[in-house]
User: Fold this.
Amino acid sequence: MAKDLDVAELERELVEEIEKQDVEPGELLSTLTRTCRRARPGSAESLCRTAINAATEHLGNSQGMTLAQGVAPLLPKSNMIREVLAELYTAIHADREDLPGILAATVNDSKVPLDAAVEQVEALLVLAPGSFFRESIGRVTGQCIGVIDGVFHARFKDGEREYLLGRVPGLIPLPDDDFRSMCAFEQESLREFAVKDPCGFIEACVRAVGPRLTYRDLRSHILDVVPSPWSAWWSEARPLVKRSEWVEMSGTAQPTFELRKKPLSHEERVQAEFDEAETSFDQLLVILDYLAEAGDLVADEADLLFYMGAGISFLAGEDEALDLGVAAVMRTIELAIPGNLEGLEVPDLPEGGDPARILSTLGDGRLQRAVLDLVRERDPDGFADFGTAALPALSPELAESVLRELEAAGRRDDILALMSWVIENPSRFPSAFIWIFKEAAAGRYTPEEGGPDHSRLIGLMLLAIDRTLRGGPEDKKLSVRIRSAISARNFAVAREILSEMDLESARTVKGCLDRCFTISDDFRAKVADLLVETNHQLYASNLEVWELTDIIFTTAEGLEKKRDELDDLVMNVLPHIAEQIGKAAAEGDLSENAEYHGWLEQRARQSERANGMQTDLKIARVIQPEMAGTVAVSIGSRVTARDQTSGETKNFTFLGPWDADVEAGIFSYRAPLSLSFMGKKPGEVAVFDFDGETRRFEIVSICSAVESTEADTFLPTL
Assistant:
């Protein structure tokens, strides 16, 4: 069309086709492009303006704007096209108050080529005042202020910046709800978001700065935004986040948060966890956990609870412990949503049976509590008998509450008899030692009235620690709990009990301690020191140097290492913990502040550790050369011995507990292995257990491992 016609005729023909709407915008722009390249500038301008006006009138402002923007690079100096563009921008963006300033600095400025002006206007229209953006390099976000005196202004957290308009197209616009930007510039709006929709708020944060965040990371990003105190807001937000479709939250006290690749409803997750549970008892725990965290929302998910209730109802009849667990959990569902399990058969309470065995099979304290509640409701007259018989198998925390209930029911004599039974059968229910120890320490059950003999109780607890340490993961957890009961408050309770013992009772405890081979050297030494402190005559007979528990022998190097360790603890670790406690306390509402209580626990542990180090350093003595026996093995000896099984020869060096380096063959003289060598001479055999196997080593030779030193035998008191 443009090839055979002059410009005037082409102009008339284009207008006719536009009026008839018989021409595509792309074809129209292509025609104008070819014409502008061949025609004189004045003719080309006139043709383009006529076509743009016709397109605007008959096809709308947007089509006119598309055509005008298309010809701008063809006529970069055309004032006529500038006028047309300014008119169209004004018509299309009449709501933009900042538009006159934008146009004045771009389209209406003849110094700016039209194509560059159009690019700048389009960028500035996207970056409206108050909107967010970031530079193409870096992740720092800014907020638009607008065009002032031909310069683009923006604010950042560290102040305002200015941009030449030519740089604006390089800025990357961000959505109005961009989380990072709102944290920096719209905290009040974000705070309202956090209050109205805590789950959506955290989801937005994880999307923005994730896809995986730790609890500390999340808290650091939003602490300045969420309502104060943090603990109150988090206690409300946590159960809601757990139900998020997009955010997966771990179940720990300080969870991690991870964005899912696709949404998964809370009900779908719970159902999958229920269906995939390894055991029937695990399925019961899934339901109890779900009910505990659902709160008021549980009524909205009756179908899921019916599904799980129906699932466990089919388990009835397999085992009396399982029957009781099923009945207890179904009761808990009914209490949450009355009538929800209508039509399902609930197992009856089993007749007879051993409550302790049943509750031990259930194991978990949550299931045990649910069963006790069920029995209390269905058989109130028989609850005292059931609870008394079940006591040995209950978790220590649950046992304490049941004890108070049984005492109120006048079952004190039965409790005393039960304690005696546990003591006589120590391997049956070792967890019961924890609550028995606490009751004895509180003076509620004394030996005079038939309560447990304290020396035997502590001795059995030591043996229980030793025995459970050799078991599986759950046994090891129990060993930690029994040890914690003995060492509570820096052994204050144990010290009080031991101080009331006579010599014979103390010997009972020592005998049990001597039979423990898996207990740590540190714990063993602490208990031994307590025995010496409270019963001086216990070690009054002719003791060998390695049997002295009121002295810690070490090398000068070991002593210096321990002092440095204490210095670091006192000068660095404890001050840091104190600083963190202060920061956590500043958030308020300490009752729900998990971080605050976590730091308090750390301070208690590290303070106890520091006190222990100070006590140990006070009784520390440097190993003297004359102590290192060469005739018979003693502290400071280096021994060459032959394994009687393999014939292999090995070297053993016996120094202090702060010098030990097993890989280098250096052992603490207090270790069970070392004690088996002490006092023996060349030709004699040391026997000890290692990894469950009895090992025998014949002593070949003995020499001193300690060089002469000028250090004082007795060190200054710290």
